Protein: Solute carrier family 5 member 8
Organism: Scleropages formosus
Amino acid sequence: MAAAHIVGTFAVWDYVVFALMLLVSAAVGVYCAMSGGGQQSSQDFLMGGRKMTAVPVALSLTATFMSAITVLATPSEVYQYGAMFILFTLSYSLMVFVTSEVFLPIFYRLGVTSTYEYLEMRFSRAVRLCGTVLFIFQTVLYTGIVIYVPALALKQVTGFDLWGAVMSTGIVCTFYCSLGGLKAVVWTDVFQLATMMAGFLVVIIRAVLLHGGFSVIIDDSQKGGRLNLWDFDPNPFKRHTFWTITFGGAFVWIGIYGVSQAQVQRYVSCKSLNHARTSLYLNLVGLWAILLCAVFSGLCLYAIYQDCDPWTAGLISAPDQLMPYLVMDILRDYPGLPGLFVAAAFSGTLSTVSSSINALAAVTVEDLVKPYISMSDRKLSWISKGLSLFYGAVCIGMAAIASLLGGLLEAALSIFGIIGGPLVGLFSLGIFCPFANSTGGLVGLFSGLGLSLWLGIWGQLYPPYHSEPLSLSTAGCNFTVNPGGQNWTQSLVAQLVDGWYSLSYLYFSPAGAITVFAVGVIMSLLTGLAMNHGGELDLKKCREIGLGTNNPAFCSSELDLTQRKAESNISSIFSP
């Protein structure tokens, strides 16, 4: 792969802006650790004492969602494939509605710290451990990539030191996570979201002024076929249509917001259910704003480079370098502004990594330590801080491993989404099917996970031919073009497997979720009937022999609270 062409290099003021972003983030961590009596218990450290309010949690939810990969990749996606990505506003809306009305009430009323505590209450400890292990695996893998990939893209275009950026962001993030816990993560997310918005707005304003106004950019995008918003083709093998983005995308993001520890931990830390629900709907507005900025940035990219595509011309070596290239091209004469955009990109990295570290510490303490080792809350607080340090180091190490993966990086990112689908199916099985049992949950989970991984990995190895981008031109370049970019000639093997493996990547998650749900229902019914020997499903008898328990959030009238209190300290949630 050819090296990228460096348009300009960082000036002193660019480094000052970037360093200031890191300094403010670290200072917030110190303040949160020292204010309010410090972190006296594991609940203070991991859940902010469950006293958080709606607005900062909403901003934190938005910042956590918007990683540096989003800042760099979404404009590139629009530049190559068009503005249909804006339809994710609909999938975000569906996701927030389902999360706030289905998953939020359950997790909040149960008072869980780890999302996967519910799986033991509903199924068994084995199911809980499977959910925990899958979350740890996907989060460590994804977090390492989130640290490394944007640093590589920025380094190749701006000359920004790669490992200096990786180490500085990793160390600062680990520092304030270990010191200030969830409060520090939430309040630094607020600052980092503001930085991300500022970075986007600087690029958009400069591009609009340079190109002659909003209307000119929209007109050029229309002529170039980039405003291809409405495609109602029901073909599931097309990469993006109204249906794949709206419904397939909703499944993907429900996996992130509905059941993923990194997001659930934030809204259940609110001081009331109303605050938690409000935080989700306010977060929706934030998601719309960030997505609108990212999509319009992609249209700015196309309007400016419509006649001289940097990728095809060989000026950059990968599409994720388009935004850094644009920034250095149009802002290099304004000291500090390129640094602001880089600070915005790494703010996305910090917000995602800090949330991941805090969530990893929470599930480790709640799922792998507390059930097996009895200790005081003070000791658990210190263990939580130690685990934050440990996972910070692990994520930095994963970034080093990511540098060796090469072309497998995209596949690894897909695996992050693929694992979410089966977990959505597992939680949905427990919530909506009172007869579902542990056997059904486990068999369904592994069936759905196997299908999702199979589709995802093969889909990456043999990408469908219809993933070719829209037309890109180099006719207006005032230099000799050195052809680069992507070769879209489909291999013979890809033609042979095209079809089943050409399923839109946004359908991998619903395919996994539906498989888990369907297999779980069938296995639960079969095992229930087999153990009853009478040909009819007896829910009471199945519970007595340990095949499953009622949903502790929805079926309280059927619970023996006296017995449950002896087994678990959750009966208090059913009191008026």
Notes: The CA atoms of residues 7 and 329 lie 6 Å apart. The longest helix spans residues 162-211. The mean pLDDT is 79.
